[in-house]
Specification:
Helix content of chain B: 10-25%
Shape of chain A: globular
CATH architecture of chain A: Orthogonal Bundle
CATH topology of chain A: MetI-like fold
CATH class of chain A: Mainly Alpha
Number of strands of chain A: 0
CATH topology of the largest domain in chain B: Rossmann fold
Oligomer: heterodimer
Largest interface: A-B, 27 and 36 residues
Order of helices and strands of chain A: HHHHHHHHHHHHH
Radius of gyration of chain B: 25 Å
Helix content of chain A: over 70%
Distance between the termini of chain A: 58 Å
Structural class of chain B: alpha+beta
Strand content of chain B: 25-35%
CATH superfamily of the largest domain in chain B: P-loop containing nucleotide triphosphate hydrolases
Shape of chain B: elongated
Structural class of chain A: mainly alpha
Largest sheet of chain A: none
Order of helices and strands of chain B: EEEHEEEHHHEHEHEEHHEEEEEEEEEE
Number of domains of chain B: 2
Number of helices of chain B: 8
CATH class of the largest domain in chain B: Alpha Beta
CATH architecture of the largest domain in chain B: 3-Layer(aba) Sandwich
Largest sheet of chain B: 6 strands, mixed
Radius of gyration of chain A: 25 Å
Number of strands of chain B: 20
Distance between the termini of chain B: 46 Å
Number of domains of chain A: 1
Strand order of the largest sheet of chain B: 6-7-8-3-9-10
Strand content of chain A: under 5%
Chain lengths: 296, 384
């Protein structure tokens, strides 16, 4: 007993790292249970034990459908990303230039669709975009009949852009807001027109946020299921629909597993590439805001 | 239209103009009734008129909120004039956007572009002017040598110390031979030693480049060290304009006397008109040469004596004849290295004051009654 008491402080000291590690155990258990185990199962099923074959992977490239849908998904995701950027960059810029109240308002406006139920939002888009809806009527009023962005990829693009805007705007807002605006004054003083000062100083410093926002929007776009199912058409299905079809209708778990793994690997490679490129750029962005103060 | 400011601009520079007399370098900047009103209680800059001569080192000195930085921003074009005119060599530039004014600017936070290297930062104004590549390289190397930063070309600004960053900013601000260099508290972010080193650096570069420098600071020591002339700002107006010596030796107002250097201040009941004046029970001689010509002196004045002009004796009998004197008490003392400062309580009102004594002088201890005296020609009578 007595030795135990004497040992106590030392022992608890030695044990502390173990105890700290225990705190993240629930999270590790959760991630393992809901992410790693199903992912492992998909991986195992994709090679179809006990035959251990790669034919399901090979058939992805030969069935004539998968690659086409994958390509369509990537193109759609790219269009959504570009649209979100074109809307998001000026929007985020505006947010950095207005007062705190207007900024909160702008933030709420962009987040409301994000907070709305998926079904409510998509059905609302159907009402707006369908034949005879406000969009169709408006273009007919302008003398351009036949504009019905419903039941095809354009409607899907519009709805996806709307809900993914926060993922573009929030990282951009944080990056743009941290750029020292006196750098723009300095550029003006050194002979740059307002436009040149933007291109040569502000834009390079905002690239980290642009890369972050684009990667978020692009990768999230790849996985959209409900929106293309409701607003698109089966003839123009996206990769998530193909996956859903394989698992729930064809019960082709091996094929679905292989497809899932293909999409995952493609996405991870893309993120790794963008991370390396964006990582250095955003590091400069951080330095731009902190470096000017410290050090002497 | 573009006079050269800087030293010999390389041949082929768009700014260079043949036949420029060598000694006349720098440009004249003339402010006439310049006013900037932000819509607050009082205008930030209130009808300021000031002519900065070619090649002059002019300092705009004043406390924060006195309008000095706003005045500089008006010259740079970062603020728009409410009224008044700004001319550079006789050309009105009040409506020109900043990038067409051809003025170099140095900022307090350096404002170096973090995504560019040192060499790219310095090359920036030249590239904006489409100077040929080979010439850019030569001029960047030349100016980096001038600021003693050779060999750091490929570093990014954050890899440099604060002093080095400000040198890069200085190089970038002068490399395109601007008509004048505007400096907005460029040294206040640096520590004391570095500040001293960069002050002499700036003085040297002003000498070598020879263009007009307009320097903004709230640090009176810095202003006196560097300037040909100082414009002392107070509440949006120029309180007094003159050389550092004039401002220190002959302040016109109580504000000027207090802002530059230490002062013993005796505020009088009224103005000074005759050749004597009274403070408490003392009658003092007035030397007409020491009376400020400000009209306010006749209404309300103060007698100002610098600590180094104050003598201390134990008894009033020891006061030299003809000197003005006041009774005082030693309140505290400070050891300043090369001298000691005695803090005094002056007269019956116990006004705070200070006198300078040598370190070996141990005649007075804290609490001792003393008599402080000075020659009438060493005092200054200012508007209060």
């Amino acid at each position: 007993m007595t030795t135990d008491l004497l040992d106590l402080p030392r022992r608890s000291e030695r044990r502390r790292p173990d105890a700290n590690w225990l705190l993240v155990l629930p999270a590790i258990v959760l991630v393992t249970a809901v992410l790693l185990v199903p992912l492992g199962q998909s991986l195992v099923r994709s090679v179809d034990p006990p035959s251990w074959t790669l034919e399901h992977y090979l058939s992805l490239f030969t069935d004539g459908v998968t690659l086409k849908v994958l390509g369509r998904t990537a193109v759609t995701a790219a269009i959504v990303t570009v649209c979100a950027f074109l809307i998001g960059y000026p929007y985020a810029y505006l947010m950095t230039r207005v007062g705190p109240r207007a900024r909160s308002l702008l933030l709420v406006v962009v987040l409301v669709p994000f907070w709305t139920s998926v079904m409510a939002r998509n059905f609302a888009w159907i009402v707006i975009l369908q034949r005879g809806g406000p969009v169709n009527s408006f273009f007919e009023f302008l003398g351009i009949p036949g504009v019905v962005p419903y039941g095809n990829v354009s409607g899907v693009t519009i709805a996806m852009t709307q809900v993914l805007l926060p993922f573009m705007i929030l990282p951009l807002f944080s990056t743009l807001g941290s750029i020292d605006r006196r750098l723009l004054l300095a550029a003006r003083g050194l002979g740059s027109s307002p436009l040149a000062a933007f291109w040569k100083v502000f834009w390079p410093l905002s690239r980290g946020g642009v890369v972050a926002g684009m990667m978020l929007v692009f990768t999230l776009s790849l996985g959209f299921y409900v929106t293309p199912a409701l607003l698109g058409s089966p003839q123009e299905s996206l990769i998530a629909q193909l996956l859903g079809q394989r698992t729930t209708q064809l019960l082709d778990f091996a094929g679905a597993g292989a497809l899932g793994i293909l999409v995952l690997v493609t996405t991870l490679l893309l993120v790794a590439w963008a991370n390396r490129f964006g990582g250095t750029v955003s590091a400069i962005g951080v330095v731009a805001t902190t470096g000017s103060k410290g050090r002497s | 239209m573009t006079d050269t400011t800087a030293r010999t601009a390389p041949a082929g520079t768009p700014e260079s103009e043949a036949g420029q007399p060598a000694e006349r370098r720098g440009t004249q900047i003339r402010l006439s009734a310049v006013t900037k009103d932000f819509g607050l209680a009082a205008p930030a800059v209130d009808e300021v008129s000031l002519t900065i001569e070619p090649g002059e080192f002019m300092t705009l000195l004043g406390p924060s909120g006195s309008g000095k930085t706003t005045t500089l921003n008006l010259i740079a074009g970062f603020e728009t004039l409410t009224s008044g005119t700004i001319e550079i060599d006789g050309h009105d530039i009040g409506r020109l956007p900043p990038h067409k004014r051809e003025l170099g600017m140095l900022f307090q936070n350096y404002a170096l572009f973090p995504h560019l290297t040192v060499a790219q930062n310095v090359a920036y104004p030249l590239r904006e002017r489409r100077v040929p590549k080979a010439e850019i390289a030569a001029r960047v190397a030349e100016v980096l040598e001038l600021v003693q930063l050779t060999g750091r070309d490929h570093n990014h600004p954050t890899q440099l110390s604060g002093g080095q960053q400000q040198r890069v900013a200085l190089a970038r601000a002068i490399v395109f031979h601007p008509k004048a260099l505007l400096l907005d508290e460029p040294l206040s972010a640096l520590d004391r030693n570095l500040r001293g080193a960069l002050q002499s650096e700036i003085r040297r570069i002003h000498r070598e480049v020879g263009s007009t420098f307009v320097f903004v600071t709230h640090d009176q020591e810095e202003a006196m060290n560097l300037s040909d002339r100082i414009a002392l700002f107070n509440q949006g107006r120029i309180e007094q304009l003159g050389s550092p010596e004039q401002l220190y030796d002959a302040p016109d107002t109580l504000f000027a006397a207090r802002f530059l250097g230490d002062s013993n201040v005796f505020e009088l009941e009224g103005g000074v008109t005759g050749d004597t004046t009274r403070w408490e029970d003392r009658a003092w001689r007035v030397d007409a040469a020491t009376v400020s010509r400000r009209s306010g002196v006749a209404e309300r004045a103060a007698v100002v004596v610098r600590p180094e002009n104050l003598g201390l004796v134990a008894d009033e009998k020891d006061v030299p004849s003809g000197a003005n004197w006041v009774r005082a008490r030693v309140r505290d003392q400070e050891f300043m290295g090369s001298y000691r400062t005695l803090q005094l309580a002056l007269g019956g009102q116990e006004r705070p004051g200070r006198a300078r004594v040598s370190t070996s002088d141990a005649s007075f201890a804290v609490g001792d009654p003393v008599v402080a005296w000075w020659r009438p020609e060493r005092q200054r009578i200012v508007a209060a």
